[in-house]
Fold these 2 entries.
Entry 1:
Amino acid sequence: MPDWINLAESLIASPALYAVLIAVSLLDSFLPLIPSEPVVIIAGIAGATGQTNIMLVIASTAAGAFLGDLVPYSIGRLMGERALKRLPVGTKRRKAYDWFERELESRGGFVLVSTRFIPVGRYLATGTAGVVRYPLRRFMLNVAISTSTWSAYTASSGYLGGVFFQENTLLSIAVGVGFALAVTGAVEFSRHVRRRNNPAEFVRKH
């Protein structure tokens, strides 16, 4: 497996960097342990010093993530019933599947957008959407929104870190990653608040 971070740093002033951003964000949509966020943040930091075009960083990252989200969705649609047979009723994996199915049916847009910011959640949501045959047009629209938002906040966090901490690369990366974690935490907190404010609904769905 390539060292994506070192590869991005070595190509930071090259147009090839945008191809790396497409590849890493695409793979991170369905493969664990692919460090897309740090790579995008590094590219965003470089945008603050003029080494990259921040708009191209956002566009290429969003494009890769969008294409990547189509992979688990397509696999889910192809596997269909076979996937369900591997999820025995009563198991944790089946309960997670059932929860995602109900959530997608009632508020698919929110699920697909919010889980994009949660690494494991994004795989489960897009894959489950395929298994339950969530309408392709609605899926693509919601994924376009989620990947664009995710790309913009990740790249911008690096860019803002680079603007304010140009003399300290490590500090700017730390600020970018911290901002990314804060957004993810905010998404999770909002879900917690909704569950607490609607306990009856939460119990019914679980």
Note: Residues 136-164 form the longest helix (29 residues).
Entry 2:
Amino acid sequence: MSGEESRIALVTGGGTGVGKAISTALVAAGWTLVICGRRREVLETAAGELGGGTMPIVADIGDPASVAALFEGIRQRFGRLDLLVNNAGSVAPAIPLEDLSFDQWNIVVSANLTGAFLCTQAAFKLMKAQEPRGGRIINNGSISATTPRPNSAPYTATKHAIAGLTKSTALDGRKYDIACGQIDIGNAASDMTAAMSAGVMQADGRIASEPTMDPAHVGRAVAHMASLPLEANVLTMTVMATKMPFVGRG
């Protein structure tokens, strides 16, 4: 690499919501960005808004062939990858566990867990072979990685699994100078959290409105994690709406 401008980052699901907030912060911090997702029009619009030469690549992170093509495109264009943000994800309908279909379960597992694994695996192969060697991986976890909401079994299970993937990645990456950390997000305002202002189910069955926060705070937190030298790592960070009912008993 030659200077800050040559730092290359990939943000999965980087064209909308929290992913776009992360992308915005990384571009502002001088990263050269690749964003991926399944909708070409959304990606191309986001890339134009982000500027900084942002490169959009259509990819389905739950498909091994699509992930392989994504990372081969990055290798051919840039020759390296310095940062992977595993952000893309999905949720199932908030219905009782026993009413979930197998397809609804699989959609969430594919997007949230299998996709993060496939991208991590591909990033390892690229990061361990490039010169200078190494890089950083940041996983989008959730406060659901420790504390579930009612009727959220697929999402909660995958976010618990992401916590394990983060630790295994941090351990297995040591010998290749690959650092891995996780950001656990609580109530960042997005399409996914739009219903919270109207009211969502609490653990005791009540429906209550919950405060949210600007996703730009998440973006800046990820940019800070990414700014560290590889000798230092933020293993876990929680960024949450201060007044959301999470700490204590609600």
Note: Residues 86 and 116 are 6 Å apart (CA to CA).
